[in-house]
Amino acid sequence: MIPGYFMKIAEINLTSEEIDFITLEEKEVKAFIGGSGIGAKLLYGYTNHKTDPLGPENVLIFMTGPLTGTKAFSSDRFEVITKSPLTGIYAESDCGGRWGEGLKKCGLDGIVIKGKAKKPVYITIKDEEIKIKDASELWGKDTFATDVLIKEEMGPNSHVVCIGKAGENLVKFACIINEGRHARAAGRAGVGTVMGSKNLKAIGVLGSKEVKIAHEQEFNQFIKDLSSRMAEQTEALRRYGTANGLEYCESVGDLPIKNWYQGNWEGAKKISGQFMAQTVLKRNYYCGRCIIGCGRTVEITKGKYKLEETAGPEYETLGMLGSNCLVDDIEVICKASELCNRYGLDTISTGSAIAFCMEAYERGLITSDDTGGLRMEWGNGDALLGMIEKITSRQDLGQLLGEGLIVASREIGGNSDEFAIQVKGLDFPAHDPRGKVSVALGYATSNRGACHLQAFTHDFEDGASIADLGYPETLDRFEITGKPKFVVDFQHLMSMFDSLRCCKFTVFGGMTVEPLVKVLNLVTGWNFSKEDFLKTGERIFNLKRMYNIREGISRKDDTLPPRILIHPRGGGAKDNLPYLNKMLNEYYQIRGWDEFGIPTEETLKRLELKEYIKEC
Amino acid sequence: MIPGYFMKIAEINLTSEEIDFITLEEKEVKAFIGGSGIGAKLLYGYTNHKTDPLGPENVLIFMTGPLTGTKAFSSDRFEVITKSPLTGIYAESDCGGRWGEGLKKCGLDGIVIKGKAKKPVYITIKDEEIKIKDASELWGKDTFATDVLIKEEMGPNSHVVCIGKAGENLVKFACIINEGRHARAAGRAGVGTVMGSKNLKAIGVLGSKEVKIAHEQEFNQFIKDLSSRMAEQTEALRRYGTANGLEYCESVGDLPIKNWYQGNWEGAKKISGQFMAQTVLKRNYYCGRCIIGCGRTVEITKGKYKLEETAGPEYETLGMLGSNCLVDDIEVICKASELCNRYGLDTISTGSAIAFCMEAYERGLITSDDTGGLRMEWGNGDALLGMIEKITSRQDLGQLLGEGLIVASREIGGNSDEFAIQVKGLDFPAHDPRGKVSVALGYATSNRGACHLQAFTHDFEDGASIADLGYPETLDRFEITGKPKFVVDFQHLMSMFDSLRCCKFTVFGGMTVEPLVKVLNLVTGWNFSKEDFLKTGERIFNLKRMYNIREGISRKDDTLPPRILIHPRGGGAKDNLPYLNKMLNEYYQIRGWDEFGIPTEETLKRLELKEYIKEC
Predict the structure, then answer these.
(1) For residue B18, how far is the Cα from the chain centroid?
(2) A554 contacts in chain B (CB < 8 Å)
(3) What is the pLDDT of residue B385?
């Protein structure tokens, strides 16, 4: 056992160029673990409801977790936490790749970026040496080139996170890219926009320290014992990537089609993981410490959309830039994905914005005069690519689309708010709440707005199961009974994943609740029970909620757009419409939240969050 | 048969003092009947989405219908139609009393008030002589005094509509009062505010003409034959008024209690119609041509709330100023009702505003510093009376409450929007959608915002029935199957009632669909079938919807506040939460409205409303 497990965080002020270090004591770490747990706690203190997300007073927090950089499968991950310029509320964004472990090897568990540089800068961290450098040569470069240039400077073992032009230009859903052309993204809610607002182009890390493990031998053995099962059970992911089940998703009414309007679509089979494997797929990509290898690299050797080997589109990207825009040309989607990666755009929000734009175009609310000549017809791949350019460079309608759906629909008018598919300002990812009722509740209550990862129930309501969370069998995806509890339980587990920092896909390979608890205890030397573990997840989830409560979020915001609530998509989702209000009532009761969706004093005390009571 | 049944409408411009007359030809009258049907058609033409409800460009339309002033039971009614300053959308407000027939006897079916007088004026209409007169002596007087003064001038057979101080002071939910201290009100959506904005204090009418009947003898016989049944079947209304069923409403979770939070309340029995009959009731009040006599007059001979004989509180008033504020003192409610009548305040919105204020007070969002010293505790009758004064005179918090719940909750903040119980800006009347699911759909789709009268299903989902509308038996009030059709059918029938202008309570005495059709045909000489009749109701309902569509209303607005959707009230409503989105989807399909709740081109063509297609 390590006496006094602690975390060390660098606080880098870009205004003053001062660098401080914060040490989080064991008690605090035990309560909030790391990743978005610690991130949320820090963000709550640094910011408040008056903080302008793009002002120097906002902070951008990069956090690893206790498991980051250990052998605990797919653990080379970090979380970015900030106040979102897209939603105005709490934001976290998770990223794989190879930067998290790099940071940790510098002896740092996290970094807090404060203030705003006078002109573009980048940061290099070599073990404990942190430098703020002039980025005038990097500014304007895409993320692939930036990665190459910084690696040339720091060496081949260094790792880089950076923004592209979208972040520089303050597109509200800019992301942060790690691993250059292998592009892993901290994608959602505009974390790259905040980085851009601080004039921060990139952070390179190169460390040589060891990651601390309390019971190393036992830990190694435990992981070794799990390895073959992990590899076996994730084979489909390895073969076909996250788009492995895309056709199935289409068949059960999960895949978004035509801006969430349509039930079925023939094109699904032309954008599936299986189809990619036969066409554009070059090889697997593995994040650090991963044996699953769901990542794709793709190559297109000829034709209009020729592409050097680079990261291929994930399921979400295929859903949002593909089926949701009725684009069934896999080469176009690969190209679109590459552009988003180069420019540092969230592929989910980008696809959402373009599908929204296509619907507005079809309805005559915008014309090609607005789009700088682009004919935004459904399925028009070149228009899709053209609009990605325009969103990035903020030209023509791209300027407005880059502000997010709420602003764009307000400006475009003509009832376009009726097909702006978001919750709390965050665009839907590619899973349809009409196909699986738990997804409805998950999106409505996710702390960062519409998000499939905060509850991650979509795979477990219909398909996989987690016996040691109490769900040994597959469920009826249209039945609401029991679903509030189901969502709550998953939100707690996922809060822990986002704090421990290892990949959620490890669940499919056996890294369920009990093994996670075991691994956490072996790494930290703690003695968490399963109950402690899930209660910590609950604490973290509630802390994020309290951040949002301070921002004015309440029950009225825990909802879904009318298209999802009132329009049955048909197809595999049949005529199902989520009975959200009924589920929400039960959900609040289970959570110990009051009628307005605010955690009660009793609940906050039970979760040892009583210092957060006063401010609500 | 009268060749060329037509309507004559006076257009009175208060800016220019010009008076014109419009004649509506038979074809137009057949299509929109009268009352709010013709009113909506006229309003659509006079105003548009840029019209400021309180600007001189808004119009205030008073309309009677073909039945007004005939023997067709309780037909002395008129409708006021305008663009609402409370909601910003279509408004209609129905009124009994004795003014409608008075207007009609002047040879006029309606009046359109345009422009704005430079200083306070009133209008007198004696047969065809219309005069605009200086109202400086009347301005500031209450409605009772104003009625007396104009009757002194015009004679005892004249009838007066007027506003009180609330309308003069532009309280957003000011009403128009007829019959002075017997106070019948065109209550809802701020029609009195519009009257105030035009500097128009009152309109007196004194006519001597006969109301036209095509087949008079047959008509008289038909009414005579129905009379005894009408009298018999409405006996409970006559004995105990509209509050006859108040205790039952409490028992089934229909009566609002503590700002729609609570399930049951002992106090109900102290504010019921039966209790009134034993205490404050003086006698019945009958509107013109009425044999039901649900109206109450009350008298309090001694004590703090001493009251000369005047109009007593209706069920809605008892629910909103009584149970919803936990006030169980019938004398206080009688006094509050009298104040609202004198000042010209809608008792429903006033009760809603005060219950909202009491909840904000309980939650510490406002204090007695804000209320000018009033302690707004639940059940505090004197605070209730004090706040009515403050709303009227726009003092302290009364200023803000007089702007309506949306504005008030935005200003007060602290999640008070969570307990602002309204739809489209109009406060709920005293029927709870959790107790009867059709009420949920009715409120969400009512063209003037939350309204029990536009569908009027609350009495027919649980209790009464209308066989010739297809509902011979009572329904399961928690079951949603079949309810969308039920609401649609009732909305059509009620659109006809609001256009024909006779009291909806006549339904209970046998004036159901077929007798209504008969009566309409006998009066006008037309040959409407039942299908024509209901289709006309549908046409009128859709026309009002198109008015609102032009104002930006769509599916997103067809909803209910979160307390009603997500918080089960318990009591007789049990844990029911309306599955509104499911019902709404079916409702749109039945109506032939598109996904956004907009009538399709096909629907508008079917309803002969094709001239309204272009503007949407």
Answers:
(1) 30
(2) 415, 417-418
(3) 98
